[in-house]
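Handout, section 4.2: multi-component inputs.
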Amino acid sequence: MMLELHGISTTFLRGTANAVKALDDLSLSVAPGDFLTIIGSNGAGKSTLIKSIAGLVPPDEGRVIFEGRDITRLPVHARAAAIGRIAQDPAESTCAVMTIEENLAMAAMRGQTRGLRLAVDARGRARFRAALAPIGLGLEARLSARVGTLSGGQRQALALLMATISGSRLLLLDEHAASLDPKTAEIVMALTARLVEERKLTTLMVTHNMQDAIRWGNRLLMMHAGRVLFDARGTEKAALSVPGLVARFHEVAEDRTLLAG
Amino acid sequence: MSQAQALILNMFEQGCLFAFLGLGVLITFRFFRFPDLTAEGSYPLGGAVAAALLVAGMNPFLATLGAILAGAAAGLATALIHTKLRINNIIAGIIVMTALYTINLRVMGKANTPLLNTPTVFGDVAGWFSLPENVLTTIPIAAAMLGIGGLLLIWFFHTDLGLAVRATGQNETMALSLGVNVDRTKMVGLALSNGFIALSGALVAQNHGFADIGMGIGILVTGAAAVLIGEAIFGDRTIAVWVFAAVVGVLLYRLLVALALRLGLEPIDLRLVTALLLLLALAVPRFRRRILR
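Output:
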């Protein structure tokens, strides 16, 4: 297995009256090359799941195993060589006051010791141009432009390249197209699919868009109250439809609520 | 020499010496986006260490290098308190600043160390060209040192490590997820910043002929005012412009202070002048934006 989660639980504001159980004894196995789309209502624990794997929110209980190694307590920066993550807010995954080439140069150094070598040289520029050109947003001609001058869609496209440029093996997408207009979101999703395919990335993608969740990937996970409600694969996933998904969500969520009550 | 000439020369001389302070403050205040109060201790630390070493008979260049290393150690201490003990960075700076007051007194053994009969870097370099140490020789020497320091800083912030240091201050979440050990980059940034600040203190002590325990009081505000004045003029652009703006900001700050004294204000009024300059430097960019719109 590429990634295994064993019974992870995370509670925010633990020990207070406002305690929220974000993940509840969740287990999950992800094979190399799997592309999981993850849906669920607000507060279902989707983001917390992504953050547990990225190391931003270490779980209270349980273990995270990546490529056979226990990384539950490994600091975020020590996972970065193998794991790329993109958040919903473009401001989080790219640095606005640095230029496009500087952002890419930082990403290219993932997992390597950063020393006193000039970060951007002619070879790097050529490499960045070649990586940017296929996106079709014209960024390859604006290498020295500050990222803050780009649109949200351009920034997310750049973030995708940054997450994958240095050979990451696992890609974590936390609603990375949600803040974009529909047309730009479409471009970013197409780029995502292309990069995942080309680089054989194992991918977990949280989305609010049920259509996207059905269309992309080979597995669909529905989460509710910190647990996985169901996990559809292969032909089962291919047969899903948006109304079917909604109906199924209500059915299972109500069952759980009744049981819990 | 006319009064105006003397004023201009004094501005360049003092400006070049204080510019290292401006560069140090630029790193923490702008790149790390917090006012690092360590400066209030590392600046006199630079003066104290250089003075103590000079009085002990050390070569001025080595004494100045010692001051830089001491300042870097002070910055490292603040970074360690902030990163390892998870204490707020401003509080960490205050703790180190407070401790440095005693350390500076211990280093000098007294509150003021005169340097009247000791050699200085300015005297030594002027001596290489068989020139006397005065304002006309100090300016080119200090300017050359500043040029080297500024270029080194610009170069550093374009290296892999330098980018990581910048990214740590600007977007820590991104830096982390790109594999940057942000604890380490904070240490590098704060050590670099306070090394520059201590260098400023060491050069000012040699130029003024004494190191004093009180020479660091209000020094962070001076540095921040300079950075902000530079920014108000040049705007917020590339690293090179930023470094250049900080230097120009220090020069202008010194000029404005000298003018204020010429206009009949007394030294005790200077803090009020500084506060007003700071306010002006902060208000001007906003005002300018409104006009452009």
